[in-house]
Amino acid sequence: MNEPAAETMGSRFNPVPSLITLCNAFCGFASIVYAIASYARGEAIPEACIWLLLGAMIFDTLDGLAARLLNAKSLHGANLDSLADAISFGVAPAVTVFVFIKRNCPGTSTGATLLIWAVALFYLGCTLWRLARYNTLTVTGKKDDGCFMGLPSPAAASMIYSAGLLLPRLDLGPHLLFFCSLGYAFLTGLLMVSDVPYPHVRRCVSGEPRVLSFVFVCVVLGSVAIFRLTAMVIWAYIYFLVAPLAELLVRKMAGKPGLVLLFSAFSKKPPSRT
């Protein structure tokens, strides 16, 4: 982040967006504390963690909106935003992965515990990798404003927390739950660093025709108001699954290998720092 990342002449520092960004980080920290406290008490992951994640996502949206309204975009704000996202959408979900699997699969061996550590750290690493790639694409001017490359970290975090609500209700048994949880966290992390294009949510709410966008927003908000967390989980899974399935279908019709999407990020040479 050298010359391309230099501040523009029209930008100026304003503390308001940065303070909102800090609220994002505070929500992530509180979620970590709640998750660890629940594990210490031998309890399930509390719903407060999910509401704190929702708060972090709201603050993550509001800080950018505030920066645009106040004409206060800055390199400081961009870096602070990435650090806050690393806490709320990287560290907090990784802690939740570890706590959830250890809590629901008691008596795991040393090897199984090491496997839990490996998957939790893999998820955290994928989040940091994705945030660094996003920053690099932004600095070099190669970021696509219409789509995210890979699953956005807030969406990935929502998938981790929603799994904490869904998987225990399936009555899978400790062994199957253990491997399903590990595989689920691993796949979610892999999708973050994949080349699967995920559309910006604002494309769904501001697209054409306007009437359909308005109806879509009303349906989403109405379902959340009525069914609360259940509706939030369902909409999260729709976003989580539709993009990779559509991309795999397109690649299959074009005769291209589909699984390359998941591993291409690790095989690419990173952009030069000079």
Question: Given the helix and strand composition, which structural class is it?
Answer: mainly alpha
CATH class of the domain at 12-194: Mainly Alpha
| Number of DSSP strand runs | 2
CATH architecture of the domain at 12-194: Up-down Bundle
Largest sheet: 2 strands, antiparallel
- The percent range for helix content is over 70%
Number of helices: 10
Radius of gyration: 19 Å
Give the helices and strands as they follow along the chain: HHHHEHHEHHHH
Mean pLDDT: 80
Enter the CATH topology name of the domain at 12-194: Four Helix Bundle (Hemerythrin (Met), subunit A)
CATH superfamily of the domain at 12-194: CDP-alcohol phosphotransferase transmembrane (TM) domain
Oligomer: single chain
Model description:
The protein is globular, with a radius of gyration of 19 Å. The relative contact order is 0.10. It has helices at residues 15-40, 47-69, 75-104, 110-139, 153-166, 174-192, 201-205, 210-227, 229-253, 260-267; strands spanning 147-149, 197-199. It starts with 14 loop residues before the first helix and ends in a 7-residue tail after the last helix. A two-stranded antiparallel sheet has the order 1-2. It has a domain at 12-194: Four Helix Bundle (Hemerythrin (Met), subunit A) (Up-down Bundle), CATH 1.20.120. The chain is mostly helical.
Break the fold down into its secondary structure elements and pairings.
Layout: H1 15-40, H2 47-69, H3 75-104, H4 110-139, E1 147-149, H5 153-166, H6 174-192, E2 197-199, H7 201-205, H8 210-227, H9 229-253, H10 260-267
Antiparallel strand pairs: 1-2
